[in-house]
């Protein structure tokens, strides 16, 4: 009887201790951003056309020990008003109780913009439990000196060249006559004070100029094609894809009469 009583006491003791095991309230794996020299961190401002390191370290939950099963990476690029311009997910299988992801990140803007980026890394274990970490970045484009190039707009009869790359076409000559130069479909034409040409020297200068521009016109018609002349006119175009052209019209040259008419050359520079 004593042995039986002792056995019952042991059984009760085992049941008691089992019922008192701590409940796992957070069974998710862990994930953390790798820090160090050249690694990006949350809230950092980075430059375009520059590579930075990005890394995270994920591990199984220390209590459950469940192995990791997959890793997801999400990249968002936003404008300054937080409108999402790009959103992409990449998910791939992983295994084991630890996983380290490292890569370089870099951004290239084809337009004169400053924006934001957001990188979210998520680790998921075999039970479907997940954890994530997010880094938010400000993407800055340092000022770059604008390239100045010469242009020539040519017209003879119905033939015209040199205007399309600026989003323009030479409709006709009229009223004295003056060249009637108009924007193509989905292109916006602006007129500026001539002083802005010398004051606009970087891509950020140009972006600010067009951002504040309010003088939208339907036609540029200041060039008199009756005779040679010099001008100091500054106009600009915003293309459908957001590309900006600042244009300085400086000269008009008229050649001798031909069968189709008199060749006209309007020249100047663009930035």
């Amino acid at each position: 009887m004593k042995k039986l009583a002792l056995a019952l006491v042991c059984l009760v003791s085992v049941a008691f201790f089992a019922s008192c095991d701590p409940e796992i309230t957070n069974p998710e794996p862990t994930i953390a951003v790798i820090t160090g020299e050249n690694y990006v961190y949350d809230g950092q401002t980075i430059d375009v056309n520059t590579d930075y390191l990005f890394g995270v370290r994920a591990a199984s939950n220390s209590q459950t020990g469940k192995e990791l099963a997959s890793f997801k990476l999400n990249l968002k690029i936003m404008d300054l008003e937080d409108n999402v311009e790009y959103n992409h997910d990449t998910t791939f299988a992983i295994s084991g109780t630890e996983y380290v992801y490292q890569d370089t990140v870099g951004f290239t803007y084809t337009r004169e913009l400053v924006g934001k980026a957001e990188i979210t890394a998520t680790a998921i274990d075999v039970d479907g439990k997940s954890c994530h970490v997010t880094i938010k970045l400000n993407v800055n484009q340092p000022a770059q000196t604008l390239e100045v190039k010469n242009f020539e707009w040519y017209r003879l009869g119905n033939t015209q060249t040199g205007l399309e790359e600026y989003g323009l076409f030479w409709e006709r000559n009229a009223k004295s006559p003056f060249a009637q130069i108009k924007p193509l479909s989905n292109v916006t034409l602006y007129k500026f004070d001539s002083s802005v040409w010398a004051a606009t020297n970087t891509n950020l200068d140009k972006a600010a100029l067009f951002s504040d521009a309010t003088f939208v016109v339907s036609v540029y018609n200041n060039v008199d094609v009756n005779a040679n002349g010099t001008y100091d006119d500054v106009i600009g175009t915003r293309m459908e894809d957001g590309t900006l052209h600042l244009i300085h019209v400086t000269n008009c040259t008229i050649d001798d009469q031909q069968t189709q008419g008199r060749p006209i050359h309007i020249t100047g520079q663009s930035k």
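The chain is about 10% helix and 45% strand. Helices lie at 2-19, 196-199, 203-212.
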